[in-house]
Automatic annotation (TrEMBL):
This is HAD family hydrolase. SUPFAM superfamilies: HAD-like. It comes from Jiangella aurantiaca. The keyword Hydrolase applies. GO terms for molecular function: hydrolase activity. Keywords: Hydrolase. Pfam families: Hydrolase (PF00702).
């Protein structure tokens, strides 16, 4: 069984929202719901550009900071200044890293069933391994394949092919679990894997049969 990492095992959105609020308060004020939503919209927009190979990781981070400053009617600094602001945000973000409560249950369930595990994630290599270390999952699940290490990002079928090659398994024998319907479910199935949608917020397609509201729901799929 292979897992996505962000918002599947690791609570990225919760950590990011808390970190954003802490960071924003240091130079602007409280993080309103609108500003927090805008921060996540900037994340999705510019991270997708990195995922598609259009910008570097550093540049997508600068664009996220610059976009926020524009919303705040603040003049953006030069690139080193943007990098410094990103560093301040990242410190606040990292201080709140935590895994979901149901991650432990899921990994215990998979281990009890004697199944191999892995992670396929679109994040950069060093960052994703750091997350696993901080939340106590290093060595608990692996191998860990990232978009950076594979040179391809989900939903590119070549990312999934790289995963299958690393595991030495036929795609049809792998069950992939992730929160992003297009990247983790549609993409996985297009590459020949089976997939379960982890729909924590109930916003996924209503007609999806292989959907779980939490990782506790994996029991039926393991059986």
């Amino acid at each position: 069984m292979v897992f996505d990492l962000d918002d599947t095992l690791f609570d990225h959105s919760g950590s990011a929202a808390r970190g954003f609020g802490t960071w924003l308060a240091t130079f602007h004020g409280p993080a309103t719901p609108d500003l927090t939503a805008a921060w996540f919209e900037l994340q999705d927009l510019h991270f997708a550009a990195w995922r598609d190979g259009l910008v570097s990781m550093a540049e997508q981070r600068r664009r996220r900071i610059g976009g926020l400053l524009e919303l705040l009617d603040r003049p953006p600094p030069d690139p080193p200044g943007l990098d410094a602001l990103w560093g301040d945000y990242f410190t606040a973000y990292r201080s709140g890293w935590q895994r979901f409560d149901d991650a432990e249950v899921a990994l215990d369930l998979v281990a009890a069933a004697g199944l191999r595990t892995g992670i396929l994630t679109n994040g950069p290599d060093e960052l994703q391994h750091d997350k696993l270390a901080v939340i106590g999952l290093t060595g608990r699940v692996g191998p860990v394949l990232t978009a950076e290490s594979l040179g391809r990002a989900k939903p590119d079928s070549r990312a999934y092919a790289g995963l299958c090659a690393a595991l030495g398994l036929d795609p049809a024998t792998i069950l992939y679990v992730g929160d992003d319907y297009e990247l983790d479910v549609v993409g996985a199935r297009a590459a020949g894997l089976r997939a379960v949608h982890l729909d924590r917020h109930g916003t996924g397609p209503a007609g999806e049969r292989d959907r779980i509201a939490s990782l506790h729901g994996l029991a039926a799929h393991v059986a």
